[in-house]
């Protein structure tokens, strides 16, 4: 587990649930169908954590299978954690870290269940400069309600 001198923090998009961790472990993306559904995405980025402390609010829990449960914010729905019943391993959703760059994925889990197009996502073209300018102008008008 990689630790820092200062605890790492994170939370949901509305700010109702916050956490702190002492150390980060393996960071991965999981392609299983349950993770796809839980995240509403092609895969779930997760990082194993040590010393997890919920510092604000409480996550809601959903027993997504007979072996694990998933934590999420009951107010905004942000996926927060993946927790096994038979051990104390907890993973948090990497994107919920205040600094997700601390946990770049190093492994793909359940890759055999990956959507057929995910391996090519990195090769998709990026927008041209006019589209980027239009996106920037639109984004400049957005007032985020995320915490």
N-to-C series of helices and strands: EEHEEEEEEEH
Report the average pLDDT across residues.
94
Number of strands: 9
Q: Please, how many helices?
A: 2
Q: Give the end-to-end Cα distance, rounded to a whole number of Å.
A: 28 Å
The CATH class, by name, is: Alpha Beta
Just name the CATH architecture.
Alpha-Beta Complex
Identify low-pLDDT runs: none
Principal-axis shape equals globular
Helical residue percent band: 10-25%
> Biggest sheet, in brief?
9 strands, mixed
Query: Could you name the CATH topology?
Result: glutathione-dependent formaldehyde- activating enzyme (gfa)
Query: Which structural class do you get from the secondary structure elements?
Result: mainly beta
Assembly of the depicted chains: single chain
Number of domains as seen in the coordinates: 1
* CATH level 4 superfamily: glutathione-dependent formaldehyde- activating enzyme (gfa)
Strand content: 35-45%
Radius of gyration: 17 Å
């Amino acid at each position: 587990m990689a630790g820092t001198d200062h605890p790492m923090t994170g939370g949901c998009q509305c700010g109702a649930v916050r956490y702190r961790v002492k150390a980060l472990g393996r960071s991965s993306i999981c392609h299983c169908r349950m993770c796809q559904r839980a995240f509403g995405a092609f895969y779930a980025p997760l990082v194993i954590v040590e010393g997890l402390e919920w510092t604000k609010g409480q996550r809601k829990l959903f027993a997504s299978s007979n072996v694990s449960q998933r934590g999420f914010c009951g107010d905004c729905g942000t996926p927060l954690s993946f927790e096994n019943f038979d051990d104390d391993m907890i993973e948090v959703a990497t994107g919920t870290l205040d600094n997700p760059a601390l946990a770049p994925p190093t492994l793909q889990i359940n890759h055999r269940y990956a959507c057929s197009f995910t391996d090519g996502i990195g090769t998709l073209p990026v927008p041209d400069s006019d589209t980027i300018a239009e996106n920037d102008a639109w984004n400049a008008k957005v007032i985020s309600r995320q915490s």
